[in-house]
Amino acid sequence: MKKVIAIDPGNKKCGLLLADIDDAIAIDGKISINSSVINLINHWREEHSVELILLGNGTTSQYWYSELHSARIDPVKLVDERMTTLRARERYLEIFPPKSFMQFIPKGLILTPKNIDVVVSLILIEDYFKIKLEWSKSIDFRIWI
Q1: Residue 12 DSSP one-character state
Q2: Which residues does 61 contact at the CB level (< 8 Å), separation at least 6?
Q3: Ramachandran class of 125: left when φ > 0, alpha when ψ lies in -120 to 50, beta otherwise
Q4: Domains in the chain, ordered, with CATH?
Q5: Which of 26, 34, 107, 113 has CA atoms 20 to 30 A from the CA of 16?
Q6: Does residue 10 have a pLDDT over 60?
Q7: Residue 32, beta-bridge partner list
């Protein structure tokens, strides 16, 4: 099973997703404050045999590339993250479609969680491997400390 971590880097927080590429499933996803990102990655690496880290090439990517290298976390591949934040809202609604009366409201009017960085990380993996990941559990949109 090929395990991959994707990181949507930000100024104060990052979205991270752990996925199994062979089974096309999202295993876990978190939004982490920057001071806890390395700890979370190392935790996942201890639990799973992670083969690759994908790092979005946008905000603070050079900083994170350097931090990951300093922490001996590799291999790290910079990937294009243009338009992923805009696409994350739509992808969120695909993963968690509205229920009950909300399904009759136009998708443009439905509010998604504010912190959807983890969905951006999912998109980074899907774009890179040209697959669609299944997400079998709910996403915790609280920020992981």
Answers
A1: S
A2: 9, 55, 78
A3: alpha
A4: 3-137 (3.30.420.110)
A5: 107
A6: yes
A7: 14, 144
Tens of pLDDT, residues 12-61: 999 999 999 999 999 999 999 999 999 999 999 999 999 999 999 988 99
Question: Residue 66: which H helix or E strand, with range?
Answer: helix 61-70
Structure tokens at 35: 């001071």
Question: Token pair for residue 9?
Answer: 């880097």
| Alpha-carbon span 135 to 90, nearest angstrom | 15
Q: 11: buried, middle or exposed (CB in 10 Å: 19+, 13-18, 0-12)?
A: exposed
HEC letters along 68-134: HHHCCCCCEEEECCCCHHHHHHHHHHHHCCCCHHHHHCCHHHCCCCCCCHHHHHHHHHHHHHCCCCE
